[in-house]
């Protein structure tokens, strides 16, 4: 088979000449194709079958133990001009990068099959959707791309109609970490990734295309590609508000997107539109309209349970791929935080021994179609997307940062997003629990200079714009006993309700230099068992502590040099001034 699009055929030929595969397979996205790939991987040992009685059509993949997370130090943005990549990215000159990585691709598919994977990010008939083609030698990648994107014939037809597509070339190579690179060429709409089979490094539609390349395109075309969940909050009266929220990796997006309101909220419903990526565009009405470019979830397994995320658990008992989880004695998937069952085999396939650390890798993941999610919104397939009422930023902060506050206006909100800090997690390799700035949760994903990105955000504030209100949340405040003060999970509904009430108007707030905080009486806290002192802590604004935080934020903004927008600097000076005056 080949395509009607010469440019695509030529590129496939060119890649085949370089990588020398034994076979070429054009993916049609069919069920039969998926089953054949599964059979193949069961034969090669890439997958093992989980208990078909409890988990029909569920499979376990164990990755190489040196290949379990995104690798930010090996991820490059190769723009022509180094300044366009910014200090927030590793940069390499495009010619050098091509040379370096093509040398690793030479002959790397000998004995393997080259899969051509046409995919569409977003509903197939959506004007906001964009297409790409990934070439990969990994059947695991093909199977995951079929769940995570609209993959196959329909996508190829759209690509042939449009004539353009993002090119992604991937090979697992020999998995040698010294020969691993994830490179982006935004001006060429091209991605090249070698040496890793792991999710964010290998499923190129996700972080590489839908965030790094798309953010670059979005800036040129006047829209936003963000690391955000999208949910709809429906009141008992049937009114729905859509909210987008950016939290760094492993900080609660998937959990919040699938929230089930607690008993104190009869008749309320949370609808899931997306759990990781949001593409938003100003509509003719001035509002931001958002789609989820993905079709599935690649979620963190540990901590997912019937009590923390019942919707996720309900979709994980069939038709799912598990990566690096543990297994029970009767081949059921298992991870830390799951009260049922116990591990017999750990994520590396060894007999479970607590001396070896956790049974499931802390960044072990499930891949599952979004259609299986009980809270999946019918509006998720709407080609126009959904209108966003509120944007929420948040991170892991064990001290200082209150449960929730609202920015005064758009430019203050952009500062709040740019200033985001979070303690690092296991989703990327490196130390865990270290505070780092992660503007808009996009530090690992913005495909261009953060200073230009801040300017782009500010530029959306046009005369006719009806922009969402901007909020900041923190579920991770710890008490003197070292435990989380806020119960979180389903109870985050109480914060969502306040946010939506603020958007609707008619509920007051407490003004502070860092923004607007809830009045205690406006938060529905019944049934939480939260003491007065704990509530005080959650809503406290420590002016001296914030003055120090703002000094740090100032240094961070300076680190982008002259490209940092003056408006952001002024906003920073305004808040710092108010903090200083209040001491
Ligand atoms: P990526 O998929 O990597 O982008 O991350 P994510 O933001 O989707 O993270 P996810 O929802 O999977 O969160 C994972 C971790 O956050 C788990 O350890 C959860 O237990 C924890 N978590 C999520 N929500 C809450 C909450 O409200 N409170 C507390 N304390 N922990 C939470
Ligand atoms: Mn993510
Ligand atoms: Mn997630």
Automatic annotation (TrEMBL):
GTP binds at residues 250-255, 365, 396, 489-492. Its cofactor is Mn(2+). It comes from the Bacteria. One of its GO terms (cellular component) is cytosol. The keyword Transcription does not apply. InterPro entries: PEP_carboxykin_GTP_CS, PEP_carboxykinase_C, PEP_carboxykinase_GTP, PEP_carboxykinase_GTP_C, PEP_carboxykinase_GTP_N, PEP_carboxykinase_N. Belongs to the phosphoenolpyruvate carboxykinase [GTP] family. It catalyses: oxaloacetate + GTP = phosphoenolpyruvate + GDP + CO2. It is an enzyme of class 4 (lyase). Residues 223-575 form the Phosphoenolpyruvate carboxykinase C-terminal P-loop domain. Pathway: Carbohydrate biosynthesis; gluconeogenesis. This is Phosphoenolpyruvate carboxykinase [GTP]. SUPFAM superfamilies: PEP carboxykinase N-terminal domain, PEP carboxykinase-like. Catalyzes the conversion of oxaloacetate (OAA) to phosphoenolpyruvate (PEP), the rate-limiting step in the metabolic pathway that produces glucose from lactate and other precursors derived from the citric acid cycle. The gene is pckG. HAMAP family: PEPCK_GTP. Residues 10-219 form the Phosphoenolpyruvate carboxykinase GTP-utilising N-terminal domain. One of its GO terms (molecular function) is GTP binding.
């Amino acid at each position: 088979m080949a395509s009607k699009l010469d440019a695509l055929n030529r590129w496939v030929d060119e890649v085949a000449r370089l990588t020398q595969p034994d076979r070429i397979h054009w993916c049609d996205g069919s069920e039969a194709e998926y089953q054949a790939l599964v059979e193949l991987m069961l034969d090669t040992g890439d997958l093992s079958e989980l208990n078909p009685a409890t988990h029909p059509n569920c499979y376990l993949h164990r990755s190489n133990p040196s290949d379990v997370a995104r690798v930010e130090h090996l991820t490059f943005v190769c723009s022509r001009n180094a300044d366009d990549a910014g200090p927030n990215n590793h940069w390499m000159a495009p010619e050098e990068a091509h040379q370096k990585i093509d040398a690793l691709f030479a002959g790397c598919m000998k004995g393997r099959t080259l899969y051509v994977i046409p995919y569409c990010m977003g509903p197939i008939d959506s004007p906001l959707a964009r297409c790409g083609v990934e070439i990969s030698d990994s059947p695991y990648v093909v199977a995951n791309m079929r769940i995570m994107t609209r993959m196959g014939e329909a996508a190829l037809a759209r690509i042939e109609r449009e004539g353009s597509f993002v090119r992604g070339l991937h090979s697992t190579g020999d998995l040698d970490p010294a020969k691993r690179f994830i490179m982006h060429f935004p001006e060429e709409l091209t991605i090249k990734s070698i040496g890793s089979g792991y999710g964010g490094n290998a499923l190129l539609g996700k972080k590489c295309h839908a965030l790094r390349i798309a953010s670059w395109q979005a800036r040129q075309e006047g829209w936003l590609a963000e690391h955000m969940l999208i949910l709809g909050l429906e009141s008992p009266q049937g009114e729905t508000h859509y909210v987008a929220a950016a939290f760094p990796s492993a900080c609660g997006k998937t959990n919040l997107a699938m929230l089930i309101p607690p008993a104190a909220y009869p008749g309320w419903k949370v609808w899931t539109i997306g759990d990781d990526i949001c593409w938003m565009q100003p509509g003719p009405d001035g509002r931001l309209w958002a789609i989820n470019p993905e079709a599935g979830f690649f979620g963190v397994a540990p901590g997912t349970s019937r009590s923390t995320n019942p919707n996720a658990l309900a979709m994980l008992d069939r038709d799912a791929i598990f990566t690096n989880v543990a297994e029970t004695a009767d081949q059921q998937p298992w991870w830390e935080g799951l009260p049922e069952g116990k591990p017999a085999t750990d994520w590396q396939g060894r007999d479970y021994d607590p001396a070896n650390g956790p049974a499931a890798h802390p960044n072990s993941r499930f891949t599952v179609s979004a259609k299986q999610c009980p809270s999946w919104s019918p509006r998720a397939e709407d080609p126009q997307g959904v209108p966003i009422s509120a944007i929420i930023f948040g991170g892991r902060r064990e001290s200082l940062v209150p449960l929730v506050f609202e920015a005064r206006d758009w430019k203050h909100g952009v500062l709040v997003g740019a200033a985001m800090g979070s303690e690092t997690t296991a989703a990327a390799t490196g130390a865990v629990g270290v505070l780092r700035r992660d503007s808009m949760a996009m530090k690992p994903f913005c495909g261009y200079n953060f200073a230009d990105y801040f300017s782009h955000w500010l530029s959306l504030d046009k005369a006719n714009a009806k922009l969402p209100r901007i909020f900041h949340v923190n579920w991770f405040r710890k008490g003197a006993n070292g435990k989380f003060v806020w119960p979180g999970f389903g109870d985050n509904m109480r914060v969502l309700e306040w946010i939506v009430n603020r958007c609707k108007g008619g509920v007051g707030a407490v003004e502070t230099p860092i923004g607007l905080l809830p009045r205690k009486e406006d938060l529905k806290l019944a049934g939480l068992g939260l003491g007065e002192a704990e509530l005080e802590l959650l809503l406290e604004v420590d002016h001296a502590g914030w003055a120090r935080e703002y000094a740090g934020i100032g240094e961070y903004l300076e680190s982008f040099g002259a490209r940092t927008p003056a408006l952001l600097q002024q906003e920073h000076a305004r808040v710092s001034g108010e903090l200083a005056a209040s001491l």
